[in-house]
Amino acid sequence: MIKALEDDLAQNFNIHFNNHDLLDEAFTQASYVNEHPNQGLKFYERIEFLGDAVLQIVVSEYLFKRYPEMPQGKLTRLRAAMVKEDSFSDFAKECHFDRYIRLGKGEELSGARQRSSLLCDIFESFTGALYLDQGRDAVEEFVQKVIFPKLDEGRFDHVIDHKSELQEVLQVHGDVDIDYQLIAETGGENDRVFEVELIADGKKLSRGKGTSKKLAEQNAANKALQQIKSKK
Amino acid sequence: MIKALEDDLAQNFNIHFNNHDLLDEAFTQASYVNEHPNQGLKFYERIEFLGDAVLQIVVSEYLFKRYPEMPQGKLTRLRAAMVKEDSFSDFAKECHFDRYIRLGKGEELSGARQRSSLLCDIFESFTGALYLDQGRDAVEEFVQKVIFPKLDEGRFDHVIDHKSELQEVLQVHGDVDIDYQLIAETGGENDRVFEVELIADGKKLSRGKGTSKKLAEQNAANKALQQIKSKK
């Protein structure tokens, strides 16, 4: 049993595994199993296979429901940005999962512990283990803490274009005149902040700030979208 | 409402949709929506996005549980064979889904109705709609009828190697001597049938027939695996 991992999960996520073997399996690489024969150890790969699909459905359903007007192409690009190796690897590190992986000596020496592909695998295998141990709701709760806030923090904004999305939402029932007006420009040459106001058919909808006019506009559009959704 | 589709689903799968709009959406291509503006129609693509992930998790979890000894590599190959375009397109046709797709005239004339990529999309969008309407259990019930029996019918045997799998299962606790003995060869030159007997550590486990010795051995191994699993 990887005690420190269990403490970490309890403290940071209030997650308590019923089946400790499952959690051990999720954090054990084949190289470690090979170095400890006759201990009946299992390595993470089968659980990772399952975890991959669990993350796909949880992320897909969340995006589908959160963005009811978003066309499939954008949903697919957004999902791909969220479930890709680099993202999962970052999430794994945020959760301190890198500390608890059981590796063989050769793998350890070769720096596997910080390898993006391994960290991504472990994020998936942990999710798979959580799913097997406690079902889908527990996975959703975990992902609500670890993945979904990144959407609001703008981590995937390069994939989502809030301005286009707002246009689609507002123009469902016909043309709407959408205007972004610069209302303030503060800070010095190197820390300039722009603030814009979003006006749709003459009505002020929202304001947004950013280090460029483009970012300020995206933020204003995103705020307007949140307001519209909260009213639905 | 696509009435004939609803009748077909009720008769063949005992499936009754609560939200008829959802089912319509799942069977409507963008080309049809474009030809019928101002009817507030939606096309299948968003639901297909969701259905794709639903099928992934349902198939993954089934394989994970059905083959508890199967290594990840083989699970992944098997899943890929099951969830790929050609397979989904065949399943869609088996379910008569091709009959009910709502297409624009141009698409119809270009033969889209029999296009593998469209049929695959519709299989996914139907699954997505079923999931939204009735939840995961209903999807599992559907897939139990449409996809999983294909495993037993040997449709994916080119991906699964039953002989290797049996070896893995039998040798979990140490070496086992597995032998396949040809016990009969019947039929003429062009319809030859081979029958083999599978013997593990001197004990007769099963028999298998096939149009080649190799196929007969695979079938015998598969039978032995089924017997072992049914005892677990």
From TrEMBL, chains A, B:
<feature type="active site">
    <location>
        <position position="52"/>
    </location>
</feature>
<comment type="function">
    <text>Digests double-stranded RNA. Involved in the processing of primary rRNA transcript to yield the immediate precursors to the large and small rRNAs (23S and 16S). Processes some mRNAs, and tRNAs when they are encoded in the rRNA operon. Processes pre-crRNA and tracrRNA of type II CRISPR loci if present in the organism.</text>
</comment>
<feature type="binding site">
    <location>
        <position position="121"/>
    </location>
    <ligand>
        <name>Mg(2+)</name>
    </ligand>
</feature>
<dbReference type="Pfam" id="PF00035">
    <property type="entry name" value="dsrm"/>
</dbReference>
<keyword id="KW-0460">Magnesium</keyword>
<keyword id="KW-0540">Nuclease</keyword>
<dbReference type="GO" id="GO:0003725">
    <property type="term" value="F:double-stranded RNA binding"/>
</dbReference>
<keyword id="KW-0698">rRNA processing</keyword>
<protein>
    <recommendedName>
        <fullName>Ribonuclease 3</fullName>
        <ecNumber>3.1.26.3</ecNumber>
    </recommendedName>
</protein>
<dbReference type="GO" id="GO:0019843">
    <property type="term" value="F:rRNA binding"/>
</dbReference>
<keyword id="KW-0963">Cytoplasm</keyword>
<dbReference type="InterPro" id="IPR014720">
    <property type="entry name" value="dsRBD_dom"/>
</dbReference>
<keyword id="KW-0694">RNA-binding</keyword>
<keyword id="KW-0378">Hydrolase</keyword>
<dbReference type="Pfam" id="PF14622">
    <property type="entry name" value="Ribonucleas_3_3"/>
</dbReference>
<feature type="domain" description="DRBM">
    <location>
        <begin position="161"/>
        <end position="230"/>
    </location>
</feature>
<feature type="region of interest" description="Disordered">
    <location>
        <begin position="206"/>
        <end position="232"/>
    </location>
</feature>
<feature type="compositionally biased region" description="Polar residues">
    <location>
        <begin position="219"/>
        <end position="232"/>
    </location>
</feature>
<keyword id="KW-0507">mRNA processing</keyword>
<keyword id="KW-0479">Metal-binding</keyword>
<dbReference type="GO" id="GO:0006364">
    <property type="term" value="P:rRNA processing"/>
</dbReference>
<dbReference type="GO" id="GO:0005737">
    <property type="term" value="C:cytoplasm"/>
</dbReference>
<feature type="binding site">
    <location>
        <position position="48"/>
    </location>
    <ligand>
        <name>Mg(2+)</name>
    </ligand>
</feature>
<comment type="similarity">
    <text>Belongs to the ribonuclease III family.</text>
</comment>
<dbReference type="GO" id="GO:0046872">
    <property type="term" value="F:metal ion binding"/>
</dbReference>
<dbReference type="InterPro" id="IPR036389">
    <property type="entry name" value="RNase_III_sf"/>
</dbReference>
<comment type="subunit">
    <text>Homodimer.</text>
</comment>
<dbReference type="InterPro" id="IPR011907">
    <property type="entry name" value="RNase_III"/>
</dbReference>
<feature type="active site">
    <location>
        <position position="124"/>
    </location>
</feature>
<dbReference type="GO" id="GO:0010468">
    <property type="term" value="P:regulation of gene expression"/>
</dbReference>
<dbReference type="GO" id="GO:0008033">
    <property type="term" value="P:tRNA processing"/>
</dbReference>
<dbReference type="GO" id="GO:0004525">
    <property type="term" value="F:ribonuclease III activity"/>
</dbReference>
<feature type="domain" description="RNase III">
    <location>
        <begin position="2"/>
        <end position="135"/>
    </location>
</feature>
<keyword id="KW-0819">tRNA processing</keyword>
<feature type="binding site">
    <location>
        <position position="124"/>
    </location>
    <ligand>
        <name>Mg(2+)</name>
    </ligand>
</feature>
<keyword id="KW-0699">rRNA-binding</keyword>
<keyword id="KW-0255">Endonuclease</keyword>
<dbReference type="InterPro" id="IPR000999">
    <property type="entry name" value="RNase_III_dom"/>
</dbReference>
<dbReference type="GO" id="GO:0006397">
    <property type="term" value="P:mRNA processing"/>
</dbReference>
